[in-house]
Amino acid sequence: MYASPFAYHRASSVADAQRLLAANPGAKILAGGHSLLPTMKLRLAAPAAIVDIGRIAELKGIEIVDDGLRIGAMTTHAEVAASPLLADACPVVSDAAARIGDPAVRNRGTIGGSVAHADPGADLPTVLAAVGARIEMAGPSGTRTVDAAQFFQGMMTTALDENEIVTAVSVPSLGAGRGSAYAKFPHPASRYAVIGAAAVVDVADGACTRAIIVVGGITGMPTRLPSVEAALVGHPLTDQAIVSACGKAAGDLSGDLMGDIFASAEYRRAVAGVYVARAVAAAAKRAS
Ligand code: FAD
After folding, report:
1. Which of 49, 237, 258, 271 would be a feasible disulfide site paired with 27, CB 3.0-4.6 Å?
2. What average pLDDT score do residues 124-149 get?
3. Nearest CA to ligand 1 atom 32
4. Which residues line ligand 1 (CB under 6 A)?
5. Does 274 lie in the same domain as 198?
6. Atom of ligand 1 nearest to the CA of 122
7. pTM here?
8. Listing from the earlier edge strand, what are the strands of the sheet with 134-139?
9. 270: in domain
10. C-alpha separations of 62 from 59, 74, 169, 227 in Å
11. Domain count for the chain
């Protein structure tokens, strides 16, 4: 199918993008296009104009900042997956980026596009919520930064205001004694997460002292599992302890859960603990 006719504008800077968005009410931002263009071709969206931010140099690249790394919004999933800086500082983000879609998707799709789109089956929102990432935005009223946990507000719903642009995502350097990992049950056709599980665990003197567990693909947005976190803390992360704690995952997943003809809500809820346990076990290895 073809998209409805639209005007195309290429922005040369963030300020230029803001000017173009203001001049074209209802315009959509185009990043990698891997979510926006299919939506337009299916006529689920028909913006009269798009503002292409793909050539804005200031939105690209990964740099070291005081307490971690700052990833420009137009950095592709492939660049995130291949970054030695990220693999060292915050490996759960590399894990997730490496498992997105296929090489074509990873070479075009961007971290800014993924967080702005906030697809419930996306991988990066889950890990960004788990590591305490911060989302930087620029809009008509200036710039601001929001914690990932507050940024993702529901299915395809974020804290972005009208005409705000995600400019970067900052992730902390996790440091010694803290391990992180991501485990995923990919949909066999799209590769989106049917279940995605991110774990960040601190280990000291052989026992878990802190655990952050977040799942995606199940409730429509990244969701923490407090019962699993509480059951992990205070114990050595043996296989038995991990399986026992992660058995509490289903109890933390209630309400309106996602389901489809491939995986029902009941199935996702029942199987989530298996992927959470895999993520915790891998994170525990990295913490030691
Ligand atoms: P675009 O498609 O250009 O934009 C998406 C939306 O975000 C649009 O509404 C756009 O206006 C807005 N937007 C984009 N950038 C910004 C910005 N900087 N500020 C504000 N708004 C912005 N994702 C996964 O996580 N896991 C998968 O396994 C996976 N598999 C996929 C398989 C296929 C076949 C396809 C086509 C996509 C898949 N994706 C998957 C999605 C992919 O990662 C997309 O690239 C991503 O969700 C959107 O990024 P993009 O750069 O392509 O954004």
Report:
1. 49
2. 97
3. 101
4. 28-36, 38, 53, 73, 77, 100-101, 105, 108-110, 112-114, 116-117, 119, 122-124, 160, 165-166, 190-192
5. yes
6. 25
7. 0.97
8. 62-65, 68-72, 165-172, 134-139, 142-147
9. yes
10. 10, 10, 10, 35
11. 3
Q: Taking a C-beta distance cutoff of 8 angstroms, is the pair 199, 225 a contact?
A: no
**Are residues 199 and 254 located together in one domain of the fold?**
yes
| Angstrom distances, CA of residue 129 to CA of 99, 153, 237 | 17, 11, 22
Final residue before a domain boundary, out of 126, 148, 172:
172
Q: How far is CA 252 from the centre of its chain?
A: 20
pLDDT tens-digit series, residues 173-205: 998 899 999 999 999 999 999 999 999 999 999
Regarding whether 157 and 63 lie in a shared domain, the answer is yes
What CATH number has the domain bearing residue 208?
Answer: 3.30.390.50
Q: Could you tell me if 51 and 27 are in contact, meaning their C-beta atoms sit under 8 angstroms apart?
A: yes
> For 254-268, how does the pLDDT look when each residue is reduced to its tens digit (9 = 90+)?
989 999 999 999 999
pLDDT at position 136 is 98
Please check whether residues 168 and 182 belong to one and the same domain: no
Range of the domain at 18: 7-52
CA distance 174 to 83: 15
Separation of CA 32 and ligand 1 centre (Å): 7
DSSP assigned state of 76: B
The residue whose CB lies within 8 Å of the most ligand 1 atoms, and thus the one to mutate among 100, 167, 195, is 100
Compute φ and ψ for 199, nearest 5 degrees.
Answer: -130, 135
Position 2 in a domain: no
Query: Is 1 domain-assigned?
Result: no
Q: Do 182 and 278 have their domain in common?
A: yes
- Residues 41, 67, single domain; the answer is no
